Prior knowledge:
Layout: H1 2-22, H2 25-42, H3 48-70, H4 79-91, H5 100-114, E1 116-117, E2 120-121, H6 125-135, H7 153-168, H8 171-190, H9 194-198, H10 204-215, H11 226-247, H12 252-281
Antiparallel strand pairs: 1-2
Helix pairs in contact: 2-4, 2-7, 3-4, 3-5, 4-5, 4-6, 5-6, 6-12, 7-10, 8-10, 8-11, 11-12
Amino acid sequence: MGLRDAANAEMKRSWRRMSALLRRPKSVCAGALFALAVVAVAGGQPPRGLLQVAMAVAAAALVDLALRRLRGLRLGLPDGALVTGAIVGLILSADSPLWLAPAVAAISIASKHGIRVRHRHIFNPAAVGLLLAAASGASESWWGDLAGLSLAYVAVLVAFMYAVLWRARKFATFFAYVASFLAVCFAAGAMHSALGADAFRNPILNATLFAAGFMASDPPTSPSRLPMQVAYGAGAGGLAAALYLWLSGLAYPFVALLAANATYAAVRLRRRVLQSARREET
């Protein structure tokens, strides 16, 4: 009887640990992204995309674990790497060479471990890797945002984003980003800009939702306090719209997001310096 009770207690502890793990924002985001990939393929996107996502996720996880080991950190579920790999796989064109997505995912995770301030990474890893890929001429189709499917699939995209934003508590960031982006594009459209009007149609609309819901809301590289969420989201969305109208192409969300990441990191660092100075004065 004692052995049975001990076994039951251990099973309960294991279940609680697993439940806590699955409730983490990164785990929820990874699950939502994998589900998006399945829905996209079921809706008619190339099945090869699933292989691309799987390879990118595997490469990101392996590189993350290897770099954690080299840095002497405790190993655990690399849920952040799973998210990064999935985003890379869902944005790069599904007909890209099979080596490309794993390579971009590996570079993304390397940037996470290599570009740090006070033991904390400051840039969204997927944005770093995808920007470098775009600069080198890689094809990015954003097939995972379901823009290539019928309009009804927007509801599916929004449902998955809701789960992620609810768990991460980043609704303010999302709405500020989307509102700012669309407001700038609406103003441009009112001045007879074709690009401004196109922002309210696919593929730009779904790409904006995807960037706001799955990338701008990244907990480690974005603020958690409500006023800063609004400022961060509005700044990133407004800059993304300006770059979209100026440069077109598909790299504008990455540039805007990295600029917002850097600004937030600078604000956070300045606050810590001021707090340290006040403590020394007292």
